């Protein structure tokens, strides 16, 4: 049975990543994840890089700049995915990342307490992205890995931003606010969006929808069941903002 349109399926919670839970035993195969949708984002076992799912194809962007198409057995400790069908298609100005959040507020004024799914395509003057290095040991925390993240700045690049905006009540479960990943048109480079801007006067094609259904599945591992999770709100903002 196919999942409902725009239902968000999330595996695990952001507090688990912050606490270093990204082992194979606390993951699911990406084939299982892809059964829940066609548009998504996340990370991989041992937090090895950044994930973009576009048109049901999953890409892994490594910290060394390389990219892999994910095999069905690739393991995923945290991700969101949805069978995306936009309810709104328009164009937006994008002078900076903060303006993206403002555009979502304007376009979906009655969705303050709901999840919003979006995709933005066009030519961007500048996109600053990052990819996380793989954990050096099991349990290494996300806030430690972020200190040594690989950061790249792309200029005059055509590509796609995939994102979710999560409501304030989801703190510790999802990344509150705008969480976005980027992939270029050639599917050669991508990662977590730190900063983004389009040329003045250039409008970006935008598609979005409010999600009326959020489904959460938790890892069934012993380590997840026993771990004292960190609810580090400021740490999450710093790591995923």
Short description:
The protein is α+β, with helices and mostly antiparallel strands.
Could you explain how this protein is built, in words?
It contains six helices and 15 strands. By secondary structure, it is α+β, with helices and mostly antiparallel strands. The protein has a seven-stranded mixed β-sheet. Strands 9, 10, 11, 12, 13 and 14 form a six-stranded antiparallel β-sheet that branches. It is globular.
The value of Rg in angstroms is 17 Å
Distance between termini?
35 Å
Specify the helix fraction band: 10-25%
The gross shape turns out to be globular
Number of structurally distinct domains: 2
Tags for this model:
241 residues; alpha+beta; 60s Ribosomal Protein L30, Chain: A; 2 domains; seven-stranded mixed beta sheet; 6 helices; 16% helix; globular; Acetolactate_a_deCO2ase; lyase
Secondary structure elements and their pairing?
Layout: E1 8-11, H1 14-18, E2 28-29, H2 30-34, E3 39-43, E4 50-54, E5 57-61, E6 67-69, E7 75-76, E8 78-82, E9 88-93, H3 97-107, E10 115-131, H4 142-146, E11 150-166, E12 177-184, E13 190-197, E14 203-211, E15 214-217, H5 222-226, H6 233-240
Parallel strand pairs: 1-15
Antiparallel strand pairs: 1-8, 2-7, 3-4, 3-8, 4-5, 5-6, 9-14, 10-11, 10-13, 10-14, 11-12, 12-13
